[in-house]
Amino acid sequence: MTVKDNLAAVREKIRQSAVRTGRSEKDVELILVTKNVSPAAILEAYAAGERCFGENRVQELIDKMEKLPRDIHWHFIGHLQTNKVKFLISGVTLIHSIDSVRLVRALAGKAAEGKTRLPVLVQVNTSGEQTKFGVSPEGLPDVLRAVSGEESLDLKGLMTIGPYSDNTSVVRDAFRNLASLRGEWKDKGFPGLSVLSMGMSHDFEIAVEEGANMVRIGTAVFGERKVNRAA
Ligand SMILES: *Cc1c(COP(=O)(O)O)cnc(C)c1O
């Protein structure tokens, strides 16, 4: 299977999942996750018309931004350390992984030096798994307030990584949880919360059924990676 074939298959599954719940594939933005993927493979996806790509390491993102076409929209999806934020300000379309007030402050300080507001998502740990990054649902309001209080940041929505479980109802519950948190906090004073970034290669169909409007997919398009799993 080529990247192009895989892409077509993934896009068709997104379409079917969206249609099952009365939506359209146009409501779901596909972010192709390119960690450990060669520029050649990325360019195959680019040639097939894809323009949204995501990286979870700051250095890898910067390297690829320099090498690849300028009209690519780059998303940062990985865990972000405060000492790395300065590299991420220019040219990144969306940061998916804000998970602490401390990170908000660090990012806002750097973003304020630029001219445009930096679009961000707050990452929520919906599964309670210890190994996952993301703020707990209880801690979410504090982070939302912190982001909203920063003139240089633009709050766009929420992101989660689903639990690694074969039990689809556990996975579905996590996505449903994120969707309901989005609805709840949108009503409670954060109208900018529109993006729901959830769903990866093994669970994106469930995520789309539960309302995802952004999915982050690597393996299903580019094949298995040797290292660098989800942070
Ligand atoms: C790696 C990664 C993905 C994509 O995972 P696949 O299983 O390869 O589709 C999505 N989101 C995040 C945060 C990741 O780190």
Secondary structure tally, helices: 8
What is the strand tally?
A: 8
Q: Round the mean pLDDT to the nearest integer and report it.
A: 93
Q: Segments where pLDDT lies below 50 for 5+ residues? A: none
Order of helices and strands: HEHEHEEHEHEHEHEH
If you compute it from the alpha carbons, what radius of gyration comes out, rounded to the nearest whole angstrom?
17 Å
Helix percentage range: 25-40%
Span from first to last CA? 27 Å
What form results from the Cα inertia axes? globular
Q: What are the distinct ligands in this entry?
A: pyridoxal-5'-phosphate
Largest sheet: 8 strands, parallel
Instruction: Quickly give the structural class.
Output: alpha/beta
The side-by-side strand order for the widest beta sheet comes to 7-6-5-4-3-2-1-8
Tell me the fraction of residues in β-strands, as a range: 15-25%
